Amino acid sequence: MVLCLLLHFKIWGKLIHHILRKMKRTVIILMLLLAGVSCLAQEKNEFRVPDSLIVEMNRNSKPDMNRVEALANIIDYCNKNRQYEKAKPYIDDLTQISEKLDNEYVKALSYLYVGTLQINTNVKEDAFNNLSKGLQKVVTLPVNEKTMEVHVRLLNSFASLYIMQRMYTEAYNSLYSAMEINKKLKNHYIQNILEINMASVLNAMQKYDESTAILSNIIADENVTKSNKHIAYGLLSYCYRQKGDLESSIKYSDLAFETSLSRFDESRILSNMGLAYLIFGQYEKASECFRTCVYNYKDEMYEDIEINSLNYYGEVLGLTSKNDSASFFIDRAILKAKECGILELEQQCIMKKAYLLLNESDYKSYSECIQEYLCVRDSLDKVNDRQRLVSAWMSNQYNELETKLKYEKELSDMQNFKVKVRLYIILICVVSLFIIMTLAYNRRNILIKNKDMELKNKDMELKNKELKEEVLTKEIESRNRELTAKALVQVQRQELLTDMVEKLKAIQDDKKKLSRNLDDVITNFEKYKNSTTPEDFDYYFTQTNPDFYKHLLVDFPYLTPYEQRLCAFLRLSLNTKDIATILNIGPESAKVARARLRKRLNIAGSDEDLTTFLSKY
Fold this sequence. Notes:
Layout: H1 2-37, H2 51-59, H3 65-80, H4 84-101, H5 104-120, H6 124-138, H7 145-164, H8 168-185, H9 188-204, H10 208-220, H11 226-242, H12 246-258, H13 263-279, H14 283-296, H15 303-319, H16 323-340, H17 343-359, H18 363-509, H19 514-529, H20 534-544, H21 548-555, H22 561-571, H23 576-582, H24 587-600, H25 610-614
Protein backbone atom coordinates (compact mmCIF):
# COMPACT_ATOMS: atom_id res chain seq x y z
CA MET A 1 0.00 0.00 0.00
CA VAL A 2 2.83 2.34 0.92
CA LEU A 3 4.67 1.43 -2.26
CA CYS A 4 1.58 2.22 -4.33
CA LEU A 5 1.24 5.55 -2.58
CA LEU A 6 4.90 6.35 -3.19
CA LEU A 7 4.57 5.36 -6.83
CA HIS A 8 1.47 7.53 -7.08
CA PHE A 9 3.36 10.52 -5.68
CA LYS A 10 6.29 9.96 -8.05
CA ILE A 11 3.96 9.93 -11.02
CA TRP A 12 2.31 13.11 -9.80
CA GLY A 13 5.71 14.66 -9.21
CA LYS A 14 6.82 14.01 -12.79
CA LEU A 15 3.50 15.34 -14.06
CA ILE A 16 3.82 18.47 -11.95
CA HIS A 17 7.39 19.05 -13.15
CA HIS A 18 6.31 18.69 -16.79
CA ILE A 19 3.36 21.07 -16.29
CA LEU A 20 5.59 23.59 -14.55
CA ARG A 21 8.06 23.67 -17.43
CA LYS A 22 5.25 24.08 -19.94
CA MET A 23 3.48 26.80 -17.95
CA LYS A 24 6.75 28.62 -17.32
CA ARG A 25 7.25 29.08 -21.04
CA THR A 26 3.65 30.24 -21.57
CA VAL A 27 3.86 32.82 -18.79
CA ILE A 28 7.17 34.16 -20.11
CA ILE A 29 5.70 34.65 -23.56
CA LEU A 30 2.64 36.42 -22.17
CA MET A 31 4.78 38.72 -20.04
CA LEU A 32 6.86 39.79 -23.00
CA LEU A 33 3.86 40.18 -25.26
CA LEU A 34 2.12 42.41 -22.74
CA ALA A 35 5.28 44.47 -22.49
CA GLY A 36 5.36 44.89 -26.24
CA VAL A 37 1.71 45.73 -26.93
CA SER A 38 0.52 47.36 -23.72
CA CYS A 39 0.46 50.88 -25.23
CA LEU A 40 2.39 53.17 -27.47
CA ALA A 41 5.46 53.60 -25.26
CA GLN A 42 6.23 56.91 -23.55
CA GLU A 43 9.42 58.50 -22.36
CA LYS A 44 8.29 58.61 -18.70
CA ASN A 45 6.16 55.95 -17.05
CA GLU A 46 5.69 57.60 -13.68
CA PHE A 47 2.06 58.66 -13.74
CA ARG A 48 1.22 62.27 -13.28
CA VAL A 49 -1.06 64.10 -15.67
CA PRO A 50 0.83 67.22 -16.72
CA ASP A 51 -0.73 70.50 -15.65
CA SER A 52 -0.58 71.68 -19.27
CA LEU A 53 -3.04 68.94 -20.34
CA ILE A 54 -5.43 69.78 -17.49
CA VAL A 55 -5.25 73.50 -18.26
CA GLU A 56 -5.84 72.82 -21.96
CA MET A 57 -8.91 70.71 -21.19
CA ASN A 58 -10.36 73.29 -18.78
CA ARG A 59 -9.74 76.05 -21.29
CA ASN A 60 -11.83 74.19 -23.91
CA SER A 61 -15.05 73.60 -22.01
CA LYS A 62 -17.35 73.69 -25.03
CA PRO A 63 -18.16 70.36 -26.73
CA ASP A 64 -16.14 70.98 -29.89
CA MET A 65 -13.10 69.57 -31.68
CA ASN A 66 -10.70 71.51 -29.43
CA ARG A 67 -12.07 69.75 -26.36
CA VAL A 68 -11.96 66.42 -28.19
CA GLU A 69 -8.27 66.93 -28.88
CA ALA A 70 -7.59 67.95 -25.26
CA LEU A 71 -9.44 64.87 -23.91
CA ALA A 72 -7.62 62.59 -26.37
CA ASN A 73 -4.25 63.87 -25.12
CA ILE A 74 -5.15 63.11 -21.49
CA ILE A 75 -6.57 59.65 -22.34
CA ASP A 76 -3.43 58.78 -24.30
CA TYR A 77 -1.27 59.86 -21.37
CA CYS A 78 -3.28 57.73 -18.92
CA ASN A 79 -3.18 54.68 -21.20
CA LYS A 80 0.55 54.95 -21.77
CA ASN A 81 1.05 54.88 -18.02
CA ARG A 82 -1.39 51.95 -17.55
CA GLN A 83 -3.74 54.13 -15.50
CA TYR A 84 -6.83 52.85 -17.26
CA GLU A 85 -9.32 53.63 -14.52
CA LYS A 86 -8.01 57.20 -14.42
CA ALA A 87 -8.78 57.51 -18.12
CA LYS A 88 -12.37 56.26 -17.80
CA PRO A 89 -14.09 59.61 -16.90
CA TYR A 90 -12.33 61.34 -19.78
CA ILE A 91 -13.42 58.55 -22.15
CA ASP A 92 -17.02 58.94 -20.93
CA ASP A 93 -16.81 62.68 -21.55
CA LEU A 94 -15.48 62.04 -25.06
CA THR A 95 -18.31 59.56 -25.76
CA GLN A 96 -20.93 62.15 -24.77
CA ILE A 97 -19.30 64.77 -26.98
CA SER A 98 -19.27 62.33 -29.93
CA GLU A 99 -23.05 61.93 -29.58
CA LYS A 100 -23.58 65.70 -29.46
CA LEU A 101 -21.31 66.54 -32.35
CA ASP A 102 -22.55 63.68 -34.56
CA ASN A 103 -19.06 63.54 -36.08
CA GLU A 104 -17.98 60.20 -37.58
CA TYR A 105 -14.31 60.79 -36.83
CA VAL A 106 -15.03 61.60 -33.15
CA LYS A 107 -17.24 58.50 -32.92
CA ALA A 108 -14.45 56.31 -34.32
CA LEU A 109 -12.02 57.85 -31.81
CA SER A 110 -14.49 57.24 -28.98
CA TYR A 111 -14.92 53.58 -29.98
CA LEU A 112 -11.12 53.23 -30.03
CA TYR A 113 -10.70 54.49 -26.47
CA VAL A 114 -13.68 52.54 -25.12
CA GLY A 115 -12.39 49.35 -26.75
CA THR A 116 -8.86 49.92 -25.42
CA LEU A 117 -10.23 50.43 -21.91
CA GLN A 118 -12.26 47.22 -22.17
CA ILE A 119 -9.19 45.29 -23.39
CA ASN A 120 -7.23 46.42 -20.35
CA THR A 121 -10.12 45.62 -18.01
CA ASN A 122 -10.56 42.18 -19.63
CA VAL A 123 -14.02 42.79 -21.14
CA LYS A 124 -13.07 41.14 -24.40
CA GLU A 125 -16.40 40.70 -26.17
CA ASP A 126 -17.43 44.32 -25.62
CA ALA A 127 -13.93 45.44 -26.61
CA PHE A 128 -14.19 43.54 -29.90
CA ASN A 129 -17.63 45.02 -30.61
CA ASN A 130 -16.51 48.60 -29.94
CA LEU A 131 -13.30 48.23 -31.92
CA SER A 132 -15.32 46.74 -34.79
CA LYS A 133 -17.68 49.73 -34.75
CA GLY A 134 -14.72 52.09 -34.75
CA LEU A 135 -13.13 50.25 -37.66
CA GLN A 136 -16.37 50.33 -39.67
CA LYS A 137 -16.60 54.07 -39.06
CA VAL A 138 -13.03 54.90 -39.95
CA VAL A 139 -12.97 53.00 -43.28
CA THR A 140 -15.80 55.21 -44.55
CA LEU A 141 -14.07 58.47 -43.62
CA PRO A 142 -11.98 60.54 -46.06
CA VAL A 143 -8.36 59.44 -46.00
CA ASN A 144 -6.19 61.98 -44.20
CA GLU A 145 -3.52 62.02 -41.50
CA LYS A 146 -5.97 61.91 -38.56
CA THR A 147 -8.19 59.15 -39.91
CA MET A 148 -5.19 57.02 -40.90
CA GLU A 149 -3.71 57.34 -37.41
CA VAL A 150 -7.00 56.25 -35.80
CA HIS A 151 -7.19 53.36 -38.29
CA VAL A 152 -3.67 52.21 -37.36
CA ARG A 153 -4.39 52.45 -33.63
CA LEU A 154 -7.60 50.46 -34.02
CA LEU A 155 -5.74 47.68 -35.81
CA ASN A 156 -3.03 47.75 -33.12
CA SER A 157 -5.71 47.40 -30.43
CA PHE A 158 -7.21 44.48 -32.35
CA ALA A 159 -3.76 42.87 -32.37
CA SER A 160 -3.53 43.28 -28.57
CA LEU A 161 -6.95 41.67 -28.17
CA TYR A 162 -6.01 38.75 -30.43
CA ILE A 163 -2.76 38.23 -28.53
CA MET A 164 -4.72 38.00 -25.27
CA GLN A 165 -6.81 35.28 -26.90
CA ARG A 166 -3.66 33.63 -28.33
CA MET A 167 -4.99 34.26 -31.84
CA TYR A 168 -1.55 34.99 -33.24
CA THR A 169 -2.41 34.66 -36.94
CA GLU A 170 -5.17 37.27 -36.64
CA ALA A 171 -2.83 39.49 -34.60
CA TYR A 172 -0.18 39.17 -37.31
CA ASN A 173 -2.69 40.12 -40.04
CA SER A 174 -3.92 43.14 -38.08
CA LEU A 175 -0.38 44.42 -37.50
CA TYR A 176 0.55 43.82 -41.15
CA SER A 177 -2.49 45.86 -42.28
CA ALA A 178 -1.56 48.62 -39.83
CA MET A 179 1.97 48.73 -41.25
CA GLU A 180 0.64 49.02 -44.79
CA ILE A 181 -1.50 52.03 -43.79
CA ASN A 182 1.40 53.58 -41.90
CA LYS A 183 3.48 53.51 -45.09
CA LYS A 184 1.20 56.28 -46.34
CA LEU A 185 1.04 57.97 -42.94
CA LYS A 186 4.86 57.87 -42.63
CA ASN A 187 4.80 58.09 -38.84
CA HIS A 188 8.20 56.81 -37.74
CA TYR A 189 7.26 56.48 -34.06
CA ILE A 190 4.11 54.43 -34.78
CA GLN A 191 6.08 52.29 -37.22
CA ASN A 192 8.54 51.36 -34.45
CA ILE A 193 5.68 50.41 -32.12
CA LEU A 194 4.05 48.25 -34.80
CA GLU A 195 7.37 46.52 -35.53
CA ILE A 196 7.90 45.83 -31.81
CA ASN A 197 4.42 44.35 -31.54
CA MET A 198 5.01 42.31 -34.68
CA ALA A 199 8.23 40.96 -33.14
CA SER A 200 6.24 39.98 -30.03
CA VAL A 201 3.75 38.05 -32.17
CA LEU A 202 6.56 36.35 -34.10
CA ASN A 203 8.11 35.30 -30.76
CA ALA A 204 4.80 33.76 -29.73
CA MET A 205 4.72 31.95 -33.10
CA GLN A 206 8.33 30.76 -32.43
CA LYS A 207 9.63 32.60 -35.50
CA TYR A 208 12.68 33.87 -33.66
CA ASP A 209 14.86 34.64 -36.70
CA GLU A 210 12.25 36.95 -38.24
CA SER A 211 11.70 38.61 -34.88
CA THR A 212 15.44 39.09 -34.36
CA ALA A 213 15.78 40.74 -37.80
CA ILE A 214 13.00 43.25 -37.04
CA LEU A 215 14.34 44.05 -33.57
CA SER A 216 17.91 44.47 -34.84
CA ASN A 217 16.69 47.09 -37.35
CA ILE A 218 14.88 48.95 -34.57
CA ILE A 219 17.98 49.01 -32.37
CA ALA A 220 20.15 50.20 -35.29
CA ASP A 221 17.78 53.11 -35.96
CA GLU A 222 19.29 56.29 -34.51
CA ASN A 223 15.91 58.03 -34.37
CA VAL A 224 14.13 55.36 -32.31
CA THR A 225 13.01 56.52 -28.85
CA LYS A 226 14.67 55.23 -25.71
CA SER A 227 11.50 53.50 -24.52
CA ASN A 228 11.09 51.61 -27.82
CA LYS A 229 14.74 50.62 -27.77
CA HIS A 230 14.27 49.35 -24.20
CA ILE A 231 11.39 47.07 -25.28
CA ALA A 232 13.38 45.87 -28.32
CA TYR A 233 16.30 44.88 -26.06
CA GLY A 234 13.93 42.93 -23.81
CA LEU A 235 12.40 41.05 -26.74
CA LEU A 236 15.84 40.27 -28.18
CA SER A 237 16.87 38.90 -24.80
CA TYR A 238 13.86 36.57 -24.92
CA CYS A 239 14.69 35.48 -28.54
CA TYR A 240 18.26 34.52 -27.66
CA ARG A 241 17.11 32.75 -24.51
CA GLN A 242 14.76 30.63 -26.60
CA LYS A 243 17.64 29.92 -29.00
CA GLY A 244 19.78 28.73 -26.05
CA ASP A 245 22.26 31.65 -26.23
CA LEU A 246 22.50 32.69 -22.56
CA GLU A 247 25.37 35.14 -23.11
CA SER A 248 23.47 37.16 -25.77
CA SER A 249 20.29 36.96 -23.71
CA ILE A 250 21.99 38.44 -20.64
CA LYS A 251 23.77 41.03 -22.81
CA TYR A 252 20.49 42.41 -24.17
CA SER A 253 18.88 42.19 -20.73
CA ASP A 254 21.66 44.43 -19.41
CA LEU A 255 21.06 46.88 -22.28
CA ALA A 256 17.32 46.81 -21.55
CA PHE A 257 18.07 47.56 -17.89
CA GLU A 258 20.31 50.49 -18.86
CA THR A 259 17.65 52.01 -21.15
CA SER A 260 14.75 51.48 -18.73
CA LEU A 261 12.80 54.60 -17.87
CA SER A 262 11.23 53.52 -14.58
CA ARG A 263 11.64 51.08 -11.73
CA PHE A 264 8.66 49.15 -13.11
CA ASP A 265 10.72 48.38 -16.22
CA GLU A 266 13.80 47.58 -14.12
CA SER A 267 11.86 45.05 -12.04
CA ARG A 268 10.57 43.29 -15.17
CA ILE A 269 14.06 43.10 -16.72
CA LEU A 270 15.57 41.74 -13.48
CA SER A 271 12.82 39.14 -13.27
CA ASN A 272 13.52 38.04 -16.88
CA MET A 273 17.27 37.91 -16.22
CA GLY A 274 16.66 35.75 -13.16
CA LEU A 275 14.49 33.45 -15.23
CA ALA A 276 17.25 33.14 -17.86
CA TYR A 277 19.80 32.22 -15.20
CA LEU A 278 17.29 29.77 -13.71
CA ILE A 279 16.67 28.04 -17.03
CA PHE A 280 20.41 27.65 -17.64
CA GLY A 281 21.06 26.39 -14.11
CA GLN A 282 22.96 29.39 -12.70
CA TYR A 283 21.02 29.45 -9.46
CA GLU A 284 23.14 31.94 -7.54
CA LYS A 285 22.76 34.66 -10.16
CA ALA A 286 19.08 33.80 -10.55
CA SER A 287 18.63 34.04 -6.76
CA GLU A 288 20.35 37.44 -6.71
CA CYS A 289 18.05 38.81 -9.47
CA PHE A 290 14.84 37.56 -7.85
CA ARG A 291 15.93 38.67 -4.37
CA THR A 292 16.62 42.18 -5.73
CA CYS A 293 13.15 42.27 -7.28
CA VAL A 294 11.43 41.02 -4.11
CA TYR A 295 13.18 43.33 -1.67
CA ASN A 296 14.26 46.40 -3.66
CA TYR A 297 11.29 46.72 -6.01
CA LYS A 298 8.51 45.58 -3.71
CA ASP A 299 6.34 48.66 -4.23
CA GLU A 300 7.29 49.37 -7.88
CA MET A 301 6.41 46.04 -9.52
CA TYR A 302 3.33 45.20 -11.47
CA GLU A 303 1.23 42.43 -9.97
CA ASP A 304 2.18 39.74 -12.49
CA ILE A 305 5.90 40.57 -12.15
CA GLU A 306 5.69 40.47 -8.34
CA ILE A 307 3.93 37.08 -8.35
CA ASN A 308 6.44 35.57 -10.75
CA SER A 309 9.40 37.03 -8.89
CA LEU A 310 8.17 35.54 -5.60
CA ASN A 311 7.38 32.24 -7.26
CA TYR A 312 10.69 31.90 -9.12
CA TYR A 313 12.67 33.05 -6.10
CA GLY A 314 10.99 30.29 -4.11
CA GLU A 315 11.82 27.81 -6.86
CA VAL A 316 15.51 28.84 -6.84
CA LEU A 317 15.63 28.53 -3.05
CA GLY A 318 14.06 25.09 -3.32
CA LEU A 319 16.64 24.02 -5.88
CA THR A 320 19.40 25.16 -3.50
CA SER A 321 17.88 23.14 -0.64
CA LYS A 322 16.45 26.12 1.24
CA ASN A 323 13.03 24.61 1.47
CA ASP A 324 11.67 26.68 4.34
CA SER A 325 12.48 29.95 2.66
CA ALA A 326 11.26 28.56 -0.67
CA SER A 327 7.91 27.60 0.85
CA PHE A 328 7.60 31.04 2.41
CA PHE A 329 8.05 32.93 -0.87
CA ILE A 330 5.88 30.51 -2.86
CA ASP A 331 3.10 30.94 -0.30
CA ARG A 332 3.40 34.70 -0.68
CA ALA A 333 3.14 34.27 -4.44
CA ILE A 334 0.02 32.09 -4.08
CA LEU A 335 -1.57 34.62 -1.74
CA LYS A 336 -0.80 37.50 -4.08
CA ALA A 337 -2.18 35.58 -7.08
CA LYS A 338 -5.41 34.89 -5.14
CA GLU A 339 -5.72 38.55 -4.22
CA CYS A 340 -5.28 39.59 -7.82
CA GLY A 341 -7.51 36.81 -9.17
CA ILE A 342 -4.84 35.58 -11.63
CA LEU A 343 -5.75 31.89 -11.77
CA GLU A 344 -3.03 30.87 -14.20
CA LEU A 345 -0.27 32.23 -11.99
CA GLU A 346 -1.97 30.83 -8.91
CA GLN A 347 -2.04 27.38 -10.50
CA GLN A 348 1.63 27.67 -11.43
CA CYS A 349 2.57 28.70 -7.87
CA ILE A 350 0.54 25.82 -6.36
CA MET A 351 2.24 23.36 -8.69
CA LYS A 352 5.64 24.58 -7.57
CA LYS A 353 4.64 24.29 -3.95
CA ALA A 354 3.37 20.77 -4.56
CA TYR A 355 6.66 19.84 -6.19
CA LEU A 356 8.54 21.31 -3.21
CA LEU A 357 6.38 19.35 -0.74
CA LEU A 358 6.92 16.19 -2.73
CA ASN A 359 10.69 16.64 -2.48
CA GLU A 360 10.32 17.11 1.29
CA SER A 361 8.20 13.91 1.46
CA ASP A 362 5.38 15.86 3.17
CA TYR A 363 2.72 13.78 1.48
CA LYS A 364 -0.18 15.07 3.50
CA SER A 365 0.50 18.69 2.63
CA TYR A 366 1.29 17.57 -0.90
CA SER A 367 -2.10 15.89 -1.15
CA GLU A 368 -3.84 19.02 0.12
CA CYS A 369 -1.86 21.09 -2.32
CA ILE A 370 -2.89 18.79 -5.15
CA GLN A 371 -6.51 19.16 -4.15
CA GLU A 372 -6.13 22.92 -4.16
CA TYR A 373 -4.44 22.70 -7.55
CA LEU A 374 -7.32 20.64 -8.92
CA CYS A 375 -9.83 23.22 -7.68
CA VAL A 376 -7.88 26.03 -9.26
CA ARG A 377 -7.45 23.97 -12.42
CA ASP A 378 -11.20 23.40 -12.60
CA SER A 379 -11.80 27.12 -12.24
CA LEU A 380 -9.11 27.81 -14.78
CA ASP A 381 -10.57 25.22 -17.14
CA LYS A 382 -13.88 27.00 -16.93
CA VAL A 383 -12.11 30.26 -17.66
CA ASN A 384 -10.20 28.62 -20.50
CA ASP A 385 -13.42 27.13 -21.85
CA ARG A 386 -14.93 30.53 -21.67
CA GLN A 387 -11.85 31.94 -23.34
CA ARG A 388 -11.98 29.31 -26.06
CA LEU A 389 -15.62 30.16 -26.68
CA VAL A 390 -14.72 33.82 -26.82
CA SER A 391 -11.83 33.02 -29.17
CA ALA A 392 -14.12 30.98 -31.41
CA TRP A 393 -16.72 33.71 -31.36
CA MET A 394 -14.08 36.31 -31.96
CA SER A 395 -12.59 34.30 -34.83
CA ASN A 396 -16.02 34.03 -36.41
CA GLN A 397 -16.61 37.73 -35.85
CA TYR A 398 -13.17 38.43 -37.30
CA ASN A 399 -14.09 36.64 -40.52
CA GLU A 400 -17.41 38.43 -40.68
CA LEU A 401 -15.79 41.76 -39.95
CA GLU A 402 -13.13 41.13 -42.57
CA THR A 403 -15.81 40.28 -45.14
CA LYS A 404 -17.89 43.28 -44.14
CA LEU A 405 -14.92 45.64 -44.27
CA LYS A 406 -13.95 44.22 -47.63
CA TYR A 407 -17.49 44.76 -48.90
CA GLU A 408 -17.60 48.29 -47.47
CA LYS A 409 -14.18 48.99 -48.95
CA GLU A 410 -15.32 47.79 -52.36
CA LEU A 411 -18.53 49.80 -51.99
CA SER A 412 -16.55 52.86 -50.96
CA ASP A 413 -14.12 52.33 -53.85
CA MET A 414 -17.05 51.96 -56.23
CA GLN A 415 -18.62 55.15 -54.94
CA ASN A 416 -15.30 56.92 -55.17
CA PHE A 417 -14.91 55.57 -58.69
CA LYS A 418 -18.36 56.90 -59.60
CA VAL A 419 -17.49 60.26 -58.11
CA LYS A 420 -14.19 60.27 -60.01
CA VAL A 421 -15.97 59.32 -63.26
CA ARG A 422 -18.47 62.13 -62.73
CA LEU A 423 -15.68 64.54 -62.00
CA TYR A 424 -13.79 63.38 -65.09
CA ILE A 425 -16.94 63.77 -67.22
CA ILE A 426 -17.56 67.24 -65.81
CA LEU A 427 -13.90 68.08 -66.32
CA ILE A 428 -14.00 66.82 -69.92
CA CYS A 429 -17.19 68.80 -70.55
CA VAL A 430 -15.68 71.93 -69.04
CA VAL A 431 -12.47 71.51 -71.03
CA SER A 432 -14.44 70.79 -74.21
CA LEU A 433 -16.64 73.82 -73.61
CA PHE A 434 -13.56 75.91 -72.94
CA ILE A 435 -11.93 74.68 -76.14
CA ILE A 436 -15.12 75.34 -78.15
CA MET A 437 -15.47 78.81 -76.65
CA THR A 438 -11.79 79.48 -77.29
CA LEU A 439 -12.10 78.34 -80.92
CA ALA A 440 -15.26 80.38 -81.37
CA TYR A 441 -13.61 83.40 -79.80
CA ASN A 442 -10.53 82.96 -81.98
CA ARG A 443 -12.73 82.52 -85.06
CA ARG A 444 -14.62 85.67 -84.15
CA ASN A 445 -11.35 87.53 -83.66
CA ILE A 446 -10.09 86.20 -86.98
CA LEU A 447 -13.30 87.33 -88.73
CA ILE A 448 -13.07 90.72 -87.07
CA LYS A 449 -9.43 90.99 -88.04
CA ASN A 450 -10.28 89.97 -91.62
CA LYS A 451 -13.05 92.57 -91.74
CA ASP A 452 -10.69 95.15 -90.29
CA MET A 453 -8.10 94.18 -92.89
CA GLU A 454 -10.70 94.42 -95.63
CA LEU A 455 -11.79 97.81 -94.35
CA LYS A 456 -8.18 98.93 -94.09
CA ASN A 457 -7.50 97.66 -97.60
CA LYS A 458 -10.55 99.49 -98.88
CA ASP A 459 -9.46 102.60 -97.04
CA MET A 460 -6.00 102.22 -98.51
CA GLU A 461 -7.47 101.75 -101.97
CA LEU A 462 -9.69 104.78 -101.49
CA LYS A 463 -6.76 106.80 -100.19
CA ASN A 464 -4.58 105.60 -103.06
CA LYS A 465 -7.36 106.41 -105.50
CA GLU A 466 -7.88 109.82 -103.94
CA LEU A 467 -4.14 110.38 -103.91
CA LYS A 468 -3.91 109.37 -107.56
CA GLU A 469 -6.84 111.63 -108.39
CA GLU A 470 -5.24 114.44 -106.41
CA VAL A 471 -1.92 113.89 -108.21
CA LEU A 472 -3.70 113.76 -111.55
CA THR A 473 -5.67 116.87 -110.64
CA LYS A 474 -2.53 118.71 -109.63
CA GLU A 475 -0.77 117.50 -112.76
CA ILE A 476 -3.71 118.64 -114.89
CA GLU A 477 -3.77 121.98 -113.11
CA SER A 478 -0.02 122.33 -113.63
CA ARG A 479 -0.35 121.45 -117.29
CA ASN A 480 -3.22 123.90 -117.60
CA ARG A 481 -1.15 126.60 -115.94
CA GLU A 482 1.76 125.84 -118.29
CA LEU A 483 -0.57 125.91 -121.28
CA THR A 484 -2.04 129.17 -120.06
CA ALA A 485 1.42 130.64 -119.57
CA LYS A 486 2.53 129.44 -122.98
CA ALA A 487 -0.64 130.80 -124.51
CA LEU A 488 -0.02 134.19 -122.93
CA VAL A 489 3.55 134.19 -124.17
CA GLN A 490 2.33 133.20 -127.62
CA VAL A 491 -0.27 135.97 -127.59
CA GLN A 492 2.28 138.51 -126.49
CA ARG A 493 4.69 137.39 -129.18
CA GLN A 494 1.89 137.42 -131.73
CA GLU A 495 1.02 140.93 -130.73
CA LEU A 496 4.64 142.02 -130.96
CA LEU A 497 5.11 140.40 -134.35
CA THR A 498 1.86 141.96 -135.60
CA ASP A 499 3.02 145.34 -134.41
CA MET A 500 6.37 144.90 -136.19
CA VAL A 501 4.62 143.79 -139.38
CA GLU A 502 2.41 146.86 -139.33
CA LYS A 503 5.35 149.08 -138.79
CA LEU A 504 7.22 147.47 -141.70
CA LYS A 505 4.16 148.05 -143.90
CA ALA A 506 4.11 151.65 -142.83
CA ILE A 507 7.73 151.95 -143.89
CA GLN A 508 6.74 150.88 -147.33
CA ASP A 509 4.11 153.65 -147.47
CA ASP A 510 6.15 156.38 -146.02
CA LYS A 511 9.81 156.32 -146.83
CA LYS A 512 10.33 159.50 -144.89
CA LYS A 513 9.64 157.78 -141.75
CA LEU A 514 11.99 154.92 -142.63
CA SER A 515 14.82 155.88 -140.42
CA ARG A 516 12.67 156.40 -137.35
CA ASN A 517 10.68 153.24 -137.88
CA LEU A 518 13.79 151.14 -138.36
CA ASP A 519 14.96 152.34 -135.04
CA ASP A 520 11.62 151.23 -133.58
CA VAL A 521 11.89 147.86 -135.27
CA ILE A 522 15.40 147.35 -133.88
CA THR A 523 14.23 148.41 -130.49
CA ASN A 524 11.26 146.08 -130.67
CA PHE A 525 13.44 143.20 -131.76
CA GLU A 526 15.74 143.98 -128.88
CA LYS A 527 12.73 144.00 -126.61
CA TYR A 528 11.58 140.72 -128.15
CA LYS A 529 15.02 139.33 -127.55
CA ASN A 530 14.70 140.18 -123.89
CA SER A 531 10.97 140.01 -123.72
CA THR A 532 11.10 138.09 -120.42
CA THR A 533 11.10 140.96 -117.96
CA PRO A 534 11.23 140.28 -114.24
CA GLU A 535 7.54 141.00 -113.95
CA ASP A 536 6.82 138.61 -116.78
CA PHE A 537 8.95 135.93 -115.18
CA ASP A 538 7.18 136.34 -111.83
CA TYR A 539 3.87 136.13 -113.57
CA TYR A 540 4.70 132.92 -115.43
CA PHE A 541 6.45 131.40 -112.40
CA THR A 542 3.50 131.98 -110.08
CA GLN A 543 1.24 130.36 -112.60
CA THR A 544 3.13 127.06 -112.26
CA ASN A 545 4.24 127.46 -108.63
CA PRO A 546 1.53 129.52 -106.99
CA ASP A 547 2.58 128.94 -103.34
CA PHE A 548 6.36 129.17 -103.65
CA TYR A 549 6.81 132.83 -102.75
CA LYS A 550 4.12 132.59 -100.05
CA HIS A 551 5.79 129.66 -98.23
CA LEU A 552 9.27 131.09 -98.71
CA LEU A 553 8.30 134.45 -97.19
CA VAL A 554 6.72 132.71 -94.18
CA ASP A 555 10.14 131.35 -93.18
CA PHE A 556 12.24 134.23 -94.59
CA PRO A 557 10.16 137.44 -94.64
CA TYR A 558 13.24 139.67 -95.04
CA LEU A 559 14.14 138.49 -98.60
CA THR A 560 14.25 141.16 -101.30
CA PRO A 561 12.42 140.74 -104.67
CA TYR A 562 15.73 140.16 -106.35
CA GLU A 563 16.60 137.41 -103.80
CA GLN A 564 13.13 135.91 -104.17
CA ARG A 565 13.54 135.77 -107.96
CA LEU A 566 17.00 134.23 -107.55
CA CYS A 567 15.38 131.56 -105.33
CA ALA A 568 12.82 130.94 -108.06
CA PHE A 569 15.60 130.42 -110.65
CA LEU A 570 17.28 127.96 -108.33
CA ARG A 571 13.93 126.28 -107.67
CA LEU A 572 13.75 125.66 -111.43
CA SER A 573 17.18 124.00 -111.21
CA LEU A 574 18.86 126.61 -113.42
CA ASN A 575 22.63 126.61 -113.29
CA THR A 576 24.82 129.62 -112.54
CA LYS A 577 25.53 130.38 -116.21
CA ASP A 578 21.81 130.41 -117.14
CA ILE A 579 21.02 132.64 -114.17
CA ALA A 580 23.81 135.03 -115.16
CA THR A 581 22.48 135.24 -118.76
CA ILE A 582 18.89 135.86 -117.58
CA LEU A 583 19.96 138.58 -115.13
CA ASN A 584 22.46 140.10 -117.59
CA ILE A 585 25.30 139.70 -115.07
CA GLY A 586 28.62 137.88 -115.17
CA PRO A 587 29.03 134.30 -113.92
CA GLU A 588 31.18 135.48 -111.01
CA SER A 589 28.50 137.90 -109.93
CA ALA A 590 25.98 135.05 -110.06
CA LYS A 591 28.20 132.96 -107.79
CA VAL A 592 28.52 135.83 -105.33
CA ALA A 593 24.73 136.25 -105.42
CA ARG A 594 24.29 132.52 -104.64
CA ALA A 595 26.72 132.75 -101.68
CA ARG A 596 24.92 135.76 -100.25
CA LEU A 597 21.60 133.97 -100.66
CA ARG A 598 22.92 130.98 -98.61
CA LYS A 599 23.74 133.36 -95.79
CA ARG A 600 20.30 134.94 -95.98
CA LEU A 601 18.72 131.47 -95.84
CA ASN A 602 20.90 130.52 -92.81
CA ILE A 603 22.56 127.54 -94.53
CA ALA A 604 25.96 129.10 -95.17
CA GLY A 605 27.76 126.68 -92.83
CA SER A 606 26.03 123.49 -93.99
CA ASP A 607 26.69 121.14 -96.88
CA GLU A 608 23.09 121.10 -98.02
CA ASP A 609 22.58 121.93 -101.69
CA LEU A 610 20.78 125.24 -102.26
CA THR A 611 18.58 123.84 -105.00
CA THR A 612 17.57 120.85 -102.78
CA PHE A 613 16.83 123.20 -99.90
CA LEU A 614 14.52 125.39 -102.03
CA SER A 615 12.74 122.38 -103.56
CA LYS A 616 10.93 121.95 -100.22
CA TYR A 617 8.95 125.09 -100.91
